[in-house]
Request: fold
Amino acid sequence: MSGQLPIYEVESEIIAALQSTRRLVLQAPTGSGKSTQVPQMLLKHGLLSAGQAVILQPRRLAARLLASRVAQELQVELGREVGYQVRLESAISASTRIKFETEGILLRQMTHDPLLGGISALIFDEFHERHLYGDITLARALDIQEQSRPDLLIVVMSATLEAGLLEKYLAPCRVVSSSGRTFPVSVQYLPRRLGSNSPPVWDLAADTFSAAASEGGDVLIFMPGGYEIQRTLEAVRQRPQSRGYLLLPLYGELPTKDQDAAVARYDKPKVVVATNVAETSITIDGVRTVIDSGLARIPRYDPNRGINTLLVERISQASAEQRAGRAGRTSPGRCFRLWSQAEHDERPPRELPEVRRLDLSEVVLTLKASGVDDLRKFRWIQPPSEASLQHAEELLLDLGALDRSPTDHPKITELGRRMLAFPLHPRYARMLLAADELQCVYHACLVAALTQGRDLLLRKQGKEIDLVRDELFDTDDRSSTSDFFVLMRAWDYASANNFNLDLLRRAGVHGVTARQVGPLLEQFLRIAKSEDFDIRFKDLDEIALRKCILIGFSDRVARRIDEGQSRCDLVHGRRGTLAKESVVRDSKLMVVAEIQEIGGKPGEVNTVLSLVTAIERDWLEELFPGDLRSDLRVGLDTINMRVRGEEVLQFRDLVIESRRVEPPPEDAAARLLAGEIIAGRLRLPKWDHRVEQWILRLNQLATWCPEFELAPIGDEERRHIIEQLCLGAIGYKDLKDREVIGVVQSWLSASQRQLLDKHAPERVSLSNGRTPKVSYEAGTPPFIALRIQELFGVTQTPRIASGRVPLSVHVLAPSMRPVQVTQDLANFWREHYPRIKSELQRRYPRHEWK
Reply:
């Protein structure tokens, strides 16, 4: 049967391309057989030598199902010639030649074995989804091929690829396209937008199924997650049209037998309700109708938890086309989209690459372990933002995974390499390493499991629910030291009651989430055991566990600002308010696992701190001695206009303790007061026009006569002088009567002051015996201003600065209004005075005129 698949139409082109360039971009539609047949082609044509073909899959479910399908086609036992490896699960052996695995597995393998020994070909499947680890592993594969493995084959394939972008990135490479064989699919939309009063999406899907069931054939319904899938199955089961149909779920967390059941062939029609795992890679034969919710859990960085999570969002137009195509595999089909045409037009054309929307700290740690020091020079297909890279490095530095040495590119530490043993976010990997040392591994694993999914506790349920929780969860004083202890007790309660959904709902506990915690806990414990951790259950050592949480979230240490209030300052200059439901109400210091920004008034954002754990100052000194420092600070009491001194203890940039210092240090007080004066918030009454004129005289003479070697007074020099004036003062009252001119003039020696008085004088002597004041202004010539009668007998323009600078003469009328400005008095008397005299004499007949 495999020989009938459309991909075989380009088999010869695929083999020829790899033999000539060893790099191939393969574009083929969903259902063409590329995922299962291309690795078999390589094996059949002898391109694998004695090595493996490793096929990279974005999802664990797809990797296992595809491996199972290929093993069946080759009639071999799964786990021998054909196998798979995903996080926490594998079925491989020494004889495995075709191996399906997730991209993160390969990236870790590249870290431990840079030559990829035993691998002959890497096949990147469904690359259009642009998963973060797919981007990274492809870049590393190209490096390995170019530097040490020229024999390595690299194939990048998908149904919808940006072939131009990849062809340029992979050059030199070949591009092969297969048109495949698909049937037309009619697409129908809802007539109008859904509103707040619209029925749940699972009811909409069930109604659509009821209307479409008469056409026959299998039905594939897309929903975002396990919860929505179960609700959809319940809704469809209640419709009479479902009689005679098999109703089957398909998503990653299902047991293996249930996953296999969803893709098996039956003699009766079936309804498969699946996540976007059925969008690509996995083919479900016989589907004639697709019902698309238009939703998916899309990986995205969640700043609340500080980890990557799956958030329910609207899919892109490209994903919607992929889903619709599942109905046209064997015959003409139909796709019902549970949104309007107008809403479809508003959707993005394709998903944003994960490198642009995920936290990069885990992948950065892996790259550092692989020897990639300069992340900015890494061969990204599309580079992440600089802010994302800086955030990742900053977090890894805080966790101790990278060194803090003053180098351009931080390097991975031994601690960072140990963290890589855990396929978890670095925060939780670091927390589990700490738990091994502090002997609380079981409970640390439980904390990690409790935070990977949605909230365990239903929020905003009212006071009655809070009272029920207090009674059922057996809260005590210890619970008030960490919100995690409340979650742990809630999960214990859920487990003890066999996750009864109705019972848990009455207690305000999310039953589906609670049920998912147990498998996660077991997975984390297995990882810890493989690292020789002591995973035995012990009585809770709450101090040890709180220390572990602190170590994992040290970049979120917070200090309560006001006694008894909920406002807090955090590391890295952030500020927030404790969530109302937090039980940590009395501690001065705490560590925050979730930070959420909530919009308020226009332009206002409220930062809410939750999952809080109380900590002690001594723990910071014990665990982070290099991050604590003592500093002396001064500040201005604006009410009393007085300098206050404080000795502060800082954890990184967060003040965690302060002590009043009286009197404040003189130098620091002087610098603070000087800053206030320069900023204009304080005034020195005796820093007057005369002082400014003296500084102008000095600065201008330094320019006019550089041979005098006078040091001008610029902004920094002015600050220095003002600080000198403020020395010994701790408040404004100590400054307001201080003499200024003497301190300013002490900038020059006695002989330099004589030069200044001689060549940039305050007054100048005229030939008629008068001594007018010289005015100096920045950017304009110095000048004198006299009434015209006071200039009688003065025919030569006065000069200063060794005669280099003529003074401007402002000639004034008897009313003191200017009538002429000149630097040539001789010409003034000769050319202009007769006319001016005639005009002024009529207006001022009593004044003397010559």
About this structure: Residues 421-543 form one domain. The mean pLDDT is 89.
